[in-house]
Amino acid sequence: MALLTLSNIEIGYPGGFNLWVNHLALEEGRIYILSGPNGAGKSTLLQTLALLNCPRRGEIRVGDERLTWRGAQLRRLRRRITLVHQNPFLFSGSIQHNLAMGLALRGIRGDEQRRRIEQSLEAVGLSEFARRPARKLSGGETRRVALARALALRPDILLLDEPTANLDRETVATFEEVIQILPAQGITVVMASHDPGQPQRLGGELLRLGGGRLMPA
Ligand SMILES: Nc1ncnc2c1ncn2[C@@H]1O[C@H](COP(=O)(O)OP(=O)(O)OP(=O)(O)O)[C@@H](O)[C@H]1O
């Protein structure tokens, strides 16, 4: 069964923009690359996949559960999905503190919290950075910390909004190495990207947006 299924979805904003998704089923352990020109609706679709942007019409299912967009169900299902923005916001304080906050909010403290922070910083190659102030990082480092912060939460679905845009080739390669192994850890990835080589390098399935709709594969 698919992890997340969108059927006959229409998403938009007052004033014009409209995106139509006839059918999209995210399967476990895959990488999906969301492509399309500027303004095609990639970020908008990611917000919907993160269960943050309620569509005008259509149905979303998480596993076999139909999303009601209400109360405890919405809060529970949102915890299974993590969205990393293109220009992520880090809180003041150390990098460790940034990772700890999300975990503490979910009741993960003590040894388990420390273990997760160590593992996820190691995964993005920033083990040495734990005590550094988060607000004094380069753009590329900030994105790596944001990725580590998301990984520490161990989501079923990780949504990445252009994680490698405007990064040097070496840093792109570091990101791709981290992303590539996520399916083996049971994490399904959907990432927006303008890099035409990325679907092949990551073994990802291409999802194309254009003309106000998700195009058939
Ligand atoms: N909060 C909002 N209110 C109204 N319109 C919005 C809002 N956010 C985005 N839009 C509009 O929706 C359309 C899709 O925007 P979106 O950011 O999803 O595109 P994108 O494919 O991610 O673009 P890019 O590649 O430039 O990041 C654009 O026309 C944008 O102006």
UniProtKB/TrEMBL annotation:
Instruction: List the Gene3D superfamilies hit by this protein, alphabetically.
Output: P-loop containing nucleotide triphosphate hydrolases
ABC transporter domain location, by residue?
4-217
Where does the chain cross the membrane? none
Q: Which InterPro entries match?
A: AAA+_ATPase, ABC_transporter-like_ATP-bd, ABC_transpr_LolD-like, P-loop_NTPase
Keyword Heme belongs to the record: no
Tell me which PROSITE patterns the record gives. ABC_TRANSPORTER_2
* One GO molecular-function entry: ATP binding
The UniProt keyword set, sorted, is: ATP-binding, Nucleotide-binding
This chain belongs to the protein called ATP-binding cassette domain-containing protein
From which organism does this entry originate? Answer: Geoalkalibacter halelectricus
